[in-house]
Protein backbone atom coordinates (compact mmCIF):
# COMPACT_ATOMS: atom_id res chain seq x y z
CA UNK A 1 0.00 0.00 0.00
CA UNK A 2 1.28 3.43 -0.89
CA UNK A 3 0.63 5.95 1.80
CA UNK A 4 0.15 9.58 0.84
CA UNK A 5 0.69 12.56 3.10
CA UNK A 6 2.82 12.47 6.19
CA UNK A 7 2.67 10.30 9.24
CA UNK A 8 2.15 11.71 12.71
CA UNK A 9 3.87 10.52 15.84
CA UNK A 10 1.38 11.23 18.60
CA UNK A 11 3.54 9.24 20.97
CA UNK A 12 4.60 10.66 24.29
CA UNK A 13 8.12 10.47 22.88
CA UNK A 14 9.80 10.52 20.53
CA UNK A 15 7.78 13.45 19.23
CA UNK A 16 7.50 15.04 15.79
CA UNK A 17 10.79 16.61 14.69
CA UNK A 18 10.32 19.99 12.96
CA UNK A 19 11.72 20.42 9.45
CA UNK A 20 13.91 23.23 10.71
CA UNK A 21 15.56 20.91 13.22
CA UNK A 22 15.98 18.14 10.65
CA UNK A 23 17.63 20.57 8.23
CA UNK A 24 19.88 22.00 10.93
CA UNK A 25 21.13 18.50 11.69
CA UNK A 26 21.72 17.62 8.04
CA UNK A 27 25.30 18.84 8.05
CA UNK A 28 28.73 17.30 7.74
CA UNK A 29 30.82 16.92 10.87
CA UNK A 30 32.99 19.80 11.97
CA UNK A 31 36.11 20.10 14.08
CA UNK A 32 34.65 20.18 17.56
CA UNK A 33 37.89 21.52 19.02
CA UNK A 34 37.40 25.07 17.77
CA UNK A 35 36.45 28.00 19.90
CA UNK A 36 33.34 28.54 17.77
CA UNK A 37 32.08 25.05 18.53
CA UNK A 38 32.84 25.38 22.24
CA UNK A 39 30.80 28.59 22.23
CA UNK A 40 27.96 26.85 20.43
CA UNK A 41 27.86 24.16 23.13
CA UNK A 42 28.08 26.77 25.89
CA UNK A 43 25.21 28.76 24.36
CA UNK A 44 23.03 25.61 24.30
CA UNK A 45 23.78 24.74 27.93
CA UNK A 46 23.14 28.33 29.02
CA UNK A 47 19.82 28.38 27.20
CA UNK A 48 18.86 25.03 28.70
CA UNK A 49 19.57 26.43 32.18
CA UNK A 50 17.31 29.35 31.31
CA UNK A 51 14.63 26.94 30.09
CA UNK A 52 14.82 25.15 33.47
CA UNK A 53 14.76 28.49 35.32
CA UNK A 54 17.94 27.80 37.20
CA UNK A 55 21.15 29.61 37.95
CA UNK A 56 22.74 26.20 38.43
CA UNK A 57 24.75 24.19 35.92
CA UNK A 58 23.52 21.95 33.14
CA UNK A 59 25.42 18.76 32.33
CA UNK A 60 24.71 17.19 28.94
CA UNK A 61 25.17 13.54 28.06
CA UNK A 62 25.13 11.62 24.81
CA UNK A 63 22.62 9.29 26.43
CA UNK A 64 18.92 8.61 26.84
CA UNK A 65 16.81 9.91 29.69
CA UNK A 66 17.69 6.68 31.50
CA UNK A 67 21.32 7.80 31.38
CA UNK A 68 20.45 11.15 32.95
CA UNK A 69 18.56 9.26 35.69
CA UNK A 70 21.74 7.35 36.48
CA UNK A 71 23.82 10.53 36.30
CA UNK A 72 21.59 12.19 38.91
CA UNK A 73 21.75 9.15 41.21
CA UNK A 74 25.50 8.51 41.13
CA UNK A 75 26.35 12.18 41.60
CA UNK A 76 23.92 12.74 44.45
CA UNK A 77 23.47 9.53 46.45
CA UNK A 78 26.33 7.93 48.37
CA UNK A 79 26.84 4.44 49.83
CA UNK A 80 24.40 3.76 52.66
CA UNK A 81 22.14 6.66 51.66
CA UNK A 82 18.55 6.22 50.56
CA UNK A 83 16.08 7.71 48.12
CA UNK A 84 12.35 8.25 48.61
CA UNK A 85 10.17 7.45 45.58
CA UNK A 86 6.42 8.00 45.25
CA UNK A 87 5.47 5.18 42.85
CA UNK A 88 3.45 7.16 40.35
CA UNK A 89 3.89 4.93 37.30
CA UNK A 90 6.34 3.06 35.13
CA UNK A 91 8.91 5.84 35.09
CA UNK A 92 8.98 6.39 38.85
CA UNK A 93 9.29 2.64 39.46
CA UNK A 94 11.96 2.37 36.75
CA UNK A 95 14.03 5.06 38.41
CA UNK A 96 13.61 3.33 41.79
CA UNK A 97 14.73 0.00 40.28
CA UNK A 98 17.78 1.70 38.83
CA UNK A 99 18.65 3.12 42.24
CA UNK A 100 18.37 -0.36 43.75
CA UNK A 101 20.59 -1.83 41.06
CA UNK A 102 23.20 0.75 42.05
CA UNK A 103 23.04 -0.44 45.66
CA UNK A 104 20.92 2.47 46.90
CA UNK A 105 18.15 1.67 49.36
CA UNK A 106 14.73 2.80 48.20
CA UNK A 107 11.80 3.85 50.37
CA UNK A 108 8.67 3.56 48.24
CA UNK A 109 5.35 5.30 48.62
CA UNK A 110 2.78 3.15 46.80
CA UNK A 111 -0.04 4.96 44.97
CA UNK A 112 -2.95 3.85 42.77
CA UNK A 113 -1.22 5.67 39.88
CA UNK A 114 -4.45 7.46 38.97
CA UNK A 115 -4.06 10.72 40.92
CA UNK A 116 -1.32 13.16 41.74
CA UNK A 117 1.01 12.40 44.66
CA UNK A 118 -0.40 13.10 48.13
CA UNK A 119 2.08 15.43 49.82
CA UNK A 120 0.89 14.22 53.26
CA UNK A 121 2.19 10.73 52.51
CA UNK A 122 5.53 12.18 51.42
CA UNK A 123 5.78 14.32 54.52
CA UNK A 124 5.00 11.31 56.75
CA UNK A 125 7.70 9.23 55.07
CA UNK A 126 10.20 12.05 55.52
CA UNK A 127 9.31 12.46 59.20
CA UNK A 128 9.69 8.73 59.73
CA UNK A 129 13.30 8.99 58.52
CA UNK A 130 14.67 10.12 61.90
CA UNK A 131 18.29 9.36 61.01
CA UNK A 132 18.01 11.52 57.91
CA UNK A 133 19.35 8.82 55.62
CA UNK A 134 17.12 9.79 52.70
CA UNK A 135 19.36 11.85 50.45
CA UNK A 136 16.93 12.51 47.58
CA UNK A 137 13.22 12.62 46.96
CA UNK A 138 12.82 11.41 43.37
CA UNK A 139 9.67 12.68 41.66
CA UNK A 140 8.43 12.46 38.09
CA UNK A 141 6.82 15.73 37.00
CA UNK A 142 4.70 14.33 34.17
CA UNK A 143 4.36 10.56 34.51
CA UNK A 144 4.22 9.72 30.85
CA UNK A 145 2.90 6.23 31.59
CA UNK A 146 -0.28 7.61 33.20
CA UNK A 147 -0.69 11.11 31.75
CA UNK A 148 -0.61 12.62 35.24
CA UNK A 149 1.17 15.78 36.30
CA UNK A 150 2.71 15.75 39.77
CA UNK A 151 3.40 19.29 40.86
CA UNK A 152 6.85 19.53 42.48
CA UNK A 153 5.78 22.51 44.65
CA UNK A 154 3.77 20.56 47.26
CA UNK A 155 6.72 18.15 47.47
CA UNK A 156 9.06 21.01 48.27
CA UNK A 157 6.51 22.14 50.88
CA UNK A 158 6.46 18.61 52.35
CA UNK A 159 10.27 18.58 52.63
CA UNK A 160 10.22 21.97 54.33
CA UNK A 161 7.35 21.06 56.66
CA UNK A 162 9.21 17.91 57.75
CA UNK A 163 12.43 19.94 58.12
CA UNK A 164 14.13 17.24 56.03
CA UNK A 165 17.36 18.10 54.20
CA UNK A 166 16.80 15.66 51.27
CA UNK A 167 17.27 17.06 47.78
CA UNK A 168 14.23 17.34 45.51
CA UNK A 169 15.20 15.69 42.22
CA UNK A 170 12.63 15.91 39.43
CA UNK A 171 12.29 13.95 36.19
CA UNK A 172 11.12 16.65 33.78
CA UNK A 173 11.64 14.55 30.66
CA UNK A 174 7.98 14.89 29.62
CA UNK A 175 7.44 18.44 30.84
CA UNK A 176 10.46 20.61 30.01
CA UNK A 177 9.78 23.09 27.20
CA UNK A 178 6.08 22.20 27.25
CA UNK A 179 4.53 23.16 30.58
CA UNK A 180 5.58 25.64 33.29
CA UNK A 181 8.52 24.49 35.37
CA UNK A 182 10.66 26.86 37.43
CA UNK A 183 13.46 24.94 39.05
CA UNK A 184 14.91 27.56 41.39
CA UNK A 185 11.68 29.30 42.42
CA UNK A 186 9.98 25.95 43.02
CA UNK A 187 12.85 24.68 45.16
CA UNK A 188 13.85 21.85 42.84
CA UNK A 189 17.49 20.92 43.49
CA UNK A 190 18.16 18.88 40.36
CA UNK A 191 16.23 18.20 37.21
CA UNK A 192 16.54 15.49 34.57
CA UNK A 193 15.54 16.07 30.93
CA UNK A 194 15.87 14.46 27.53
CA UNK A 195 15.97 15.52 23.89
CA UNK A 196 13.07 13.66 22.29
CA UNK A 197 10.03 15.14 24.00
CA UNK A 198 9.40 18.87 24.42
CA UNK A 199 12.75 19.67 22.86
CA UNK A 200 11.62 18.15 19.53
CA UNK A 201 14.91 16.37 18.81
CA UNK A 202 15.72 12.72 18.13
CA UNK A 203 16.42 10.59 21.21
CA UNK A 204 20.05 10.43 22.31
CA UNK A 205 20.83 13.57 24.27
CA UNK A 206 19.95 14.07 27.91
CA UNK A 207 20.65 16.58 30.64
CA UNK A 208 20.83 17.09 34.35
CA UNK A 209 20.43 20.61 35.68
CA UNK A 210 21.99 20.92 39.12
CA UNK A 211 21.28 23.73 41.57
CA UNK A 212 23.71 24.89 44.29
CA UNK A 213 22.70 22.32 46.91
CA UNK A 214 23.00 19.45 44.42
CA UNK A 215 26.41 20.70 43.25
CA UNK A 216 27.56 20.87 46.85
CA UNK A 217 26.45 17.28 47.56
CA UNK A 218 28.11 16.03 44.37
CA UNK A 219 31.44 17.63 45.23
CA UNK A 220 32.16 15.15 48.02
CA UNK A 221 29.25 12.68 47.90
CA UNK A 222 27.77 10.25 45.43
CA UNK A 223 28.86 6.81 44.26
CA UNK A 224 32.00 5.76 42.36
CA UNK A 225 31.59 7.15 38.86
CA UNK A 226 33.50 8.50 35.91
CA UNK A 227 31.48 9.06 32.74
CA UNK A 228 28.59 10.64 34.65
CA UNK A 229 30.76 12.64 37.06
CA UNK A 230 29.89 16.33 37.06
CA UNK A 231 33.30 17.16 38.55
CA UNK A 232 35.04 16.12 35.34
CA UNK A 233 32.69 18.08 33.09
CA UNK A 234 33.25 21.67 34.12
CA UNK A 235 35.92 22.53 31.54
CA UNK A 236 35.28 24.88 28.65
CA UNK A 237 36.35 22.54 25.81
CA UNK A 238 33.41 20.69 24.29
CA UNK A 239 35.42 17.43 24.61
CA UNK A 240 35.50 18.01 28.38
CA UNK A 241 31.86 19.03 28.62
CA UNK A 242 30.84 15.72 27.01
CA UNK A 243 33.73 13.66 28.40
CA UNK A 244 34.40 12.52 24.87
CA UNK A 245 33.41 13.46 21.35
CA UNK A 246 30.45 15.84 21.40
CA UNK A 247 27.42 14.62 19.41
CA UNK A 248 27.97 17.32 16.80
CA UNK A 249 24.81 17.02 14.72
CA UNK A 250 22.62 16.73 17.81
CA UNK A 251 24.07 20.00 19.02
CA UNK A 252 23.25 21.67 15.70
CA UNK A 253 19.70 20.37 16.13
CA UNK A 254 19.53 21.46 19.76
CA UNK A 255 20.65 24.99 18.85
CA UNK A 256 17.87 25.18 16.26
CA UNK A 257 15.22 23.79 18.63
CA UNK A 258 16.23 26.27 21.34
CA UNK A 259 16.05 29.10 18.78
CA UNK A 260 12.56 27.98 17.77
CA UNK A 261 11.42 27.93 21.40
CA UNK A 262 12.91 31.41 21.94
CA UNK A 263 11.22 32.77 18.82
CA UNK A 264 7.84 31.48 19.92
CA UNK A 265 8.50 32.55 23.52
CA UNK A 266 8.16 30.19 26.45
CA UNK A 267 4.80 31.56 27.67
CA UNK A 268 3.40 31.02 24.16
CA UNK A 269 4.87 27.51 24.05
CA UNK A 270 3.11 26.71 27.33
CA UNK A 271 -0.13 28.31 26.15
CA UNK A 272 -0.05 26.25 22.94
CA UNK A 273 0.40 23.03 24.89
CA UNK A 274 -2.48 23.95 27.20
CA UNK A 275 -4.72 24.84 24.25
CA UNK A 276 -4.03 21.61 22.38
CA UNK A 277 -4.37 19.56 25.56
CA UNK A 278 -7.79 21.09 26.17
CA UNK A 279 -8.83 20.07 22.67
CA UNK A 280 -7.72 16.50 23.32
CA UNK A 281 -9.53 16.39 26.66
CA UNK A 282 -12.71 17.79 25.10
CA UNK A 283 -12.67 15.01 22.50
CA UNK A 284 -12.00 12.30 25.08
CA UNK A 285 -14.74 13.62 27.41
CA UNK A 286 -17.16 13.44 24.51
CA UNK A 287 -16.14 9.90 23.52
CA UNK A 288 -16.38 8.89 27.20
CA UNK A 289 -20.12 9.56 27.25
CA UNK A 290 -20.93 6.07 25.95
CA UNK A 291 -19.25 4.55 29.01
CA UNK A 292 -16.59 2.42 27.30
CA UNK A 293 -13.77 5.01 27.29
CA UNK A 294 -12.47 7.13 30.14
CA UNK A 295 -9.61 9.22 31.43
CA UNK A 296 -7.02 7.18 33.28
CA UNK A 297 -6.35 10.21 35.52
CA UNK A 298 -9.21 10.55 38.01
CA UNK A 299 -8.27 14.07 39.04
CA UNK A 300 -9.15 16.50 36.22
CA UNK A 301 -6.75 19.12 37.63
CA UNK A 302 -3.81 16.72 37.35
CA UNK A 303 -4.30 15.72 33.70
CA UNK A 304 -1.05 16.53 31.97
CA UNK A 305 -0.86 19.02 29.12
CA UNK A 306 1.66 16.81 27.32
CA UNK A 307 0.04 13.37 27.28
CA UNK A 308 -3.47 12.00 27.82
CA UNK A 309 -4.06 8.37 28.82
CA UNK A 310 -7.37 6.73 27.90
CA UNK A 311 -8.80 3.67 29.67
CA UNK A 312 -11.20 1.23 28.06
CA UNK A 313 -13.91 -1.21 29.12
CA UNK A 314 -12.40 -4.71 29.58
CA UNK A 315 -13.77 -6.10 26.29
CA UNK A 316 -12.03 -3.44 24.21
CA UNK A 317 -8.45 -3.91 23.02
CA UNK A 318 -6.65 -0.59 22.78
CA UNK A 319 -3.80 -2.34 20.96
CA UNK A 320 -6.13 -3.05 18.01
CA UNK A 321 -7.08 0.60 17.86
CA UNK A 322 -3.47 1.66 17.94
CA UNK A 323 -2.55 -0.77 15.23
CA UNK A 324 -5.33 0.44 12.98
CA UNK A 325 -4.37 4.09 13.44
CA UNK A 326 -0.71 3.33 12.79
CA UNK A 327 -0.92 0.81 9.95
CA UNK A 328 -3.85 2.21 8.06
CA UNK A 329 -3.65 5.93 8.70
CA UNK A 330 -0.03 6.58 9.63
CA UNK A 331 -0.80 8.01 13.06
CA UNK A 332 1.13 6.46 15.93
CA UNK A 333 -0.37 6.63 19.43
CA UNK A 334 1.24 5.27 22.57
CA UNK A 335 0.06 2.13 24.35
CA UNK A 336 -0.01 1.14 27.99
CA UNK A 337 3.32 0.35 29.65
CA UNK A 338 4.34 -1.16 32.97
CA UNK A 339 1.30 -2.25 34.99
CA UNK A 340 -1.00 -0.83 32.29
CA UNK A 341 0.47 -2.81 29.41
CA UNK A 342 -2.20 -3.43 26.78
CA UNK A 343 -4.85 -1.47 28.71
CA UNK A 344 -4.31 2.17 27.77
CA UNK A 345 -4.04 4.33 24.72
CA UNK A 346 -1.85 7.37 25.26
CA UNK A 347 -2.12 10.44 23.08
CA UNK A 348 1.13 12.38 23.11
CA UNK A 349 0.65 16.10 22.60
CA UNK A 350 3.98 17.71 23.22
CA UNK A 351 6.63 19.32 21.11
CA UNK A 352 6.18 20.43 17.53
CA UNK A 353 2.40 20.37 17.26
CA UNK A 354 -0.38 22.62 16.00
CA UNK A 355 -4.15 22.59 15.56
CA UNK A 356 -4.09 20.85 12.18
CA UNK A 357 -1.94 18.03 13.53
CA UNK A 358 -3.97 17.50 16.69
CA UNK A 359 -7.31 17.62 14.86
CA UNK A 360 -5.93 15.22 12.27
CA UNK A 361 -4.80 12.82 14.97
CA UNK A 362 -8.12 13.04 16.86
CA UNK A 363 -10.01 12.59 13.58
CA UNK A 364 -8.08 9.42 12.81
CA UNK A 365 -8.73 8.09 16.31
CA UNK A 366 -12.46 8.84 15.91
CA UNK A 367 -12.38 7.01 12.59
CA UNK A 368 -10.71 3.98 14.14
CA UNK A 369 -13.23 3.98 17.02
CA UNK A 370 -16.06 3.92 14.49
CA UNK A 371 -14.47 1.26 12.28
CA UNK A 372 -13.70 -1.09 15.15
CA UNK A 373 -17.14 -0.63 16.76
CA UNK A 374 -15.87 0.79 20.02
CA UNK A 375 -18.88 2.41 21.72
CA UNK A 376 -18.18 6.12 21.95
CA UNK A 377 -20.07 9.36 22.34
CA UNK A 378 -20.44 11.25 19.04
CA UNK A 379 -18.99 14.63 18.39
CA UNK A 380 -15.52 14.23 19.89
CA UNK A 381 -13.75 16.01 17.06
CA UNK A 382 -16.44 18.72 17.09
CA UNK A 383 -15.86 19.16 20.80
CA UNK A 384 -12.13 19.59 20.13
CA UNK A 385 -12.89 22.21 17.48
CA UNK A 386 -15.14 24.04 19.91
CA UNK A 387 -12.48 23.96 22.62
CA UNK A 388 -9.98 25.46 20.17
CA UNK A 389 -12.48 28.07 18.98
CA UNK A 390 -13.11 29.08 22.59
CA UNK A 391 -9.45 30.13 22.81
C1 LIG B 1 10.49 9.22 28.05
C2 LIG B 1 10.65 9.29 29.51
C3 LIG B 1 11.73 8.68 30.18
C4 LIG B 1 12.73 7.83 29.48
O1 LIG B 1 13.51 8.52 28.57
P1 LIG B 1 14.47 7.67 27.61
O2 LIG B 1 15.13 8.71 26.78
O3 LIG B 1 13.60 6.74 26.84
O4 LIG B 1 15.43 6.95 28.48
C5 LIG B 1 11.83 8.85 31.54
N1 LIG B 1 10.94 9.58 32.22
C6 LIG B 1 9.88 10.15 31.63
C7 LIG B 1 8.89 10.92 32.45
C8 LIG B 1 9.70 10.02 30.26
O5 LIG B 1 8.64 10.58 29.66
- What radius of gyration results from the CA coordinates? 21 Å
**How many DSSP E strands?**
14
Instruction: Give helix and strand order, one letter per element, not per position.
Output: EHHEHEHEHEEEHEEEHHHHEEHEEHH
Give the count of helical stretches.
13
Widest beta sheet: strand line-up: 2-10-9-8-5-3-4
Number of structural domains: 2
CATH H-tier superfamily of the largest domain: Type I PLP-dependent aspartate aminotransferase-like (Major domain)
Which cofactors or ions or other ligands sit in this model? Answer: pyridoxal-5'-phosphate
Euclidean distance between termini CA atoms: 39 Å
Per CATH, the class of the largest domain reads Alpha Beta
The residue-averaged pLDDT reads: 97
The profile of the biggest β sheet is: 7 strands, mixed
Q: Give the amount of beta strand, in percent.
A: 15-25%
Which residue ranges are poorly predicted, with pLDDT under 50 across at least 5 consecutive positions?
Answer: none
So what's the oligomer here?
A: single chain
Give the structural class.
Answer: alpha/beta
Helix proportion range: 40-55%
C-alpha geometry: globular
Structure description:
The protein folds into two domains: 8-15 and 266-389, Aspartate Aminotransferase, domain 1; 19-262, Aspartate Aminotransferase, domain 2 (3-Layer(aba) Sandwich). The strands form three sheets. It has a seven-stranded mixed sheet with strand order 2-10-9-8-5-3-4, with helices on both faces. Strands 1-13-14-12-11 form a five-stranded mixed sheet, with helices on both faces. It has a two-stranded antiparallel sheet with strand order 6-7. Helix 2 crosses helix 9 and helix 10 (266-287) runs parallel beside helix 12 (355-371). The chain contains 13 helices and 14 strands. The longest helix has 22 residues, at 266-287. The model has no long low-confidence stretch (mean pLDDT 97). It has helices spanning 19-25, 35-52, 65-76, 90-101, 119-128, 152-162, 212-220, 238-241, 248-264, 266-287, 318-329, 355-371, 380-389, and strands spanning 8-10, 57-61, 82-87, 105-110, 134-140, 142-143, 148-149, 167-171, 190-194, 206-210, 293-295, 307-312, 331-335, 344-348. The protein is an alpha/beta fold and 391 residues long. Helices cover 41% and strands 17% of the residues. Strand 3 (82-87), helix 4 (90-101) and strand 4 form a beta-alpha-beta unit. It binds pyridoxal-5'-phosphate. Residues 13, 64-66, 91, 140, 144, 171, 173-174, 194, 203 line the site of pyridoxal-5'-phosphate (PLP). Pyridoxal-5'-phosphate is lined by residues 13, 64-66, 91, 140, 144, 171, 173-174, 194, 203.
Amino acid sequence: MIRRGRGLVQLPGPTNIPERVLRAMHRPSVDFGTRAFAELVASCLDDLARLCWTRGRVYAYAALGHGAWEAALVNLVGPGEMVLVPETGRFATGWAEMAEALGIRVVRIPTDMRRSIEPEAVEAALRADRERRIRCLLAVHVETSTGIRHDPRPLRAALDAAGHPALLVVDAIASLAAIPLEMDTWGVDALVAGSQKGLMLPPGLSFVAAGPRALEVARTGGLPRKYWDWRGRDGTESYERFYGTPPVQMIFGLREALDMLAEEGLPAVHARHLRLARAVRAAVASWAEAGAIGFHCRDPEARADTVTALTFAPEIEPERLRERCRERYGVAFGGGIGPFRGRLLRIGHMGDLDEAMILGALGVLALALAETDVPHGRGGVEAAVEALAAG
